[in-house]
Every structure is written in structure tokens, then in C-alpha cells.
Amino acid sequence: MQKAIAEFIGTFTLVLFGCGAAVVAGPAIAAANTVGVLGIAFSFGLAIVAMAYAIGPISGCHVNPAVSLGALVAGRMSVGDFITYVIAQVLGAIVGALVLYLIMKGKAEGWDGGMGTNGWGPGYGGGYNVTSAFLFEVVATFIFLVVILGVTHKLVTHAFAGLAIGLTLTMIHIVGINITGTSVNPARSLGPALFVGGAALSQLWLFIVAPFIGAAIAGFVYRAGILYNGEH
């Protein structure tokens, strides 16, 4: 139960403050208040850093179904724990999006209804097509999991693991925000999409399938001992 609560809080925080940066101070708001791509990227990254040190000792701070899948494939968690984690993460993302939605509903003007959703195609970001979006999400999630599984390996000192993981997510967002808004996290995509609907929901499949593929490949790489030999 402690692990589930930790994952709920961690994912809630990631969605509220990561997507919140995109909505409250993103490019759609008046120029004087924008934080830009770097600000949004760092908001997601810093949320992970904060939660890694806050709940990492309890649950490992996955806050992402793709991370949990990678850990499962790598042999680091059981199927039962995987299911528990995913349920907690999805609920945390939905509640985080709900709180953000309620906050934005209180804005008198200037809100276009956006919730920091992921997407692709004409009218979204740089207008990248589905192939570009899918490829980016697979590769970015793979790299993200390689870092996570690497810095938490038994052969590695873990003191700075949270910082490394958070900065990696920041790096991924800097490149990916203009392509897909950057998901690499099915729960993060699901929460906001439920409140926006439309294209955000119809395109949600990509932000579930692609991150799971990238994570599973990374998990296999570690399970097979391609990068590290011995225990995982």
C-alpha cells in the first residue's frame, strides 16, 4: 500500500507541475509570462528529481507505466507489483490532471482549454507526422529506461540517480516538446487527454504503445546482460 500511495503522489506531482508549466506559463499564454520549452522541460525534470528523493526509497519512483514495464522485463519487479504500480500511476495522473483542470477553470480569460496533452500532425507543435512521433517516443523511452536501469544498477552508486534521471527527462523534453509534446509516459498522456478529448484521445494509442515498446527493449537489454553482466 505504501508503494501504491507513493506512486500515486509521484505521478500526481509530475502531471500537475509538468503539464501545469505547459498550461499556466507555456507558449499559449502572454509572452511576458512564458517559460518556453526550457522552462517546461525543466518543470518535468525537476518534478522527477524531487519525487526520486522523496518517494524513491519507498517505491523506486517509477511514476510511469513504461518505467514499470521496463523494470518488469528486466526482472526487477513482479507482475503483481507491476499491476499495482500501473493502477496507482494512472489514478495519480488523472487526479493531477483534474486538479490542473479545476485551477485553470478559475482563470477569467486567456485559457484555450489546453492541458499539456501529447499529439502530432498539422496544428500540433512542429507538425510532425505519425511516423516521426512514433519513432521519437520509442527511441526517447528506450534512452530514458537505459539511464534509469543503469543508474539504479547494483554496480552503480545511487546517490545521484534521481538527478541523472531528472536531467535525462529534461533533455528528452527539450527535443521532444515540438515533436509530440513529449510523453515517454502513458499515464502522463492519459490524464490530460481525458479532460481535453478530441484528437488528444484519438491519438492516445501512440503514447501507450510507443513508450511500452521502447521500455520493453531497454528491459530486455538489461535482462539479457547486453550492457551489464550478472545481477540486475
UniProtKB/TrEMBL annotation:
<feature type="transmembrane region" description="Helical">
    <location>
        <begin position="40"/>
        <end position="61"/>
    </location>
</feature>
<feature type="transmembrane region" description="Helical">
    <location>
        <begin position="200"/>
        <end position="222"/>
    </location>
</feature>
<keyword id="KW-0813">Transport</keyword>
<keyword id="KW-0472">Membrane</keyword>
<comment type="similarity">
    <text>Belongs to the MIP/aquaporin (TC 1.A.8) family.</text>
</comment>
<dbReference type="InterPro" id="IPR000425">
    <property type="entry name" value="MIP"/>
</dbReference>
<dbReference type="Pfam" id="PF00230">
    <property type="entry name" value="MIP"/>
</dbReference>
<feature type="transmembrane region" description="Helical">
    <location>
        <begin position="159"/>
        <end position="180"/>
    </location>
</feature>
<dbReference type="InterPro" id="IPR034294">
    <property type="entry name" value="Aquaporin_transptr"/>
</dbReference>
<feature type="transmembrane region" description="Helical">
    <location>
        <begin position="82"/>
        <end position="104"/>
    </location>
</feature>
<protein>
    <submittedName>
        <fullName>Aquaporin Z</fullName>
    </submittedName>
</protein>
<dbReference type="InterPro" id="IPR023271">
    <property type="entry name" value="Aquaporin-like"/>
</dbReference>
<dbReference type="GO" id="GO:0015250">
    <property type="term" value="F:water channel activity"/>
</dbReference>
<keyword id="KW-0812">Transmembrane</keyword>
<feature type="transmembrane region" description="Helical">
    <location>
        <begin position="133"/>
        <end position="152"/>
    </location>
</feature>
<dbReference type="GO" id="GO:0005886">
    <property type="term" value="C:plasma membrane"/>
</dbReference>
<dbReference type="InterPro" id="IPR022357">
    <property type="entry name" value="MIP_CS"/>
</dbReference>
<keyword id="KW-1003">Cell membrane</keyword>
<keyword id="KW-1133">Transmembrane helix</keyword>
